[in-house]
Design a protein that fits this description.
This is FlpE-related protein. By secondary structure, the chain is an alpha+beta fold. 30% of the residues lie in helices and 34% in strands. It has one domain (8-125): Bacterial Protein-export protein SecB. Strands 1-4-3-2 form a four-stranded antiparallel beta sheet. The protein is elongated, with a radius of gyration of 23 Å.
Length: 128
Amino acid sequence: MITSNTNLNVCVNKIKMIRPGNNPRSCDLNLNVDWTIEYNRTDEGDMGYVCTLDAMGEMPLKFAIQGFLECETQIEDLEKRSDELSPLILDKCMNTMVNIVNATNNSIITINTVPEVYLNCVSSEFKN
């Protein structure tokens, strides 16, 4: 049970994603996700974590975030509260994964042909 609020800074150091080559055609994508979070102590004395997501189904992908937690209180307090921290870290990782998947979608770019007359006019303006 939480008896007091603690400010926690969730820091991200590394992100790794391996996604399939083709995007699924469905806009409503349902993913089955296996996840793990491993905690460790960093060299600086902070509490580190690695959250790994393994999505299966229409769009299989592997995603991982490595980071650390900064806290006002003792690190030992965080170690005792991993059952409270894991859902928060998992939520941050899932949101990050969805944002990166959306940002890396294939896109079509239209290149307009510029008339040569326009190119000649513009290039003459830059001559001394």
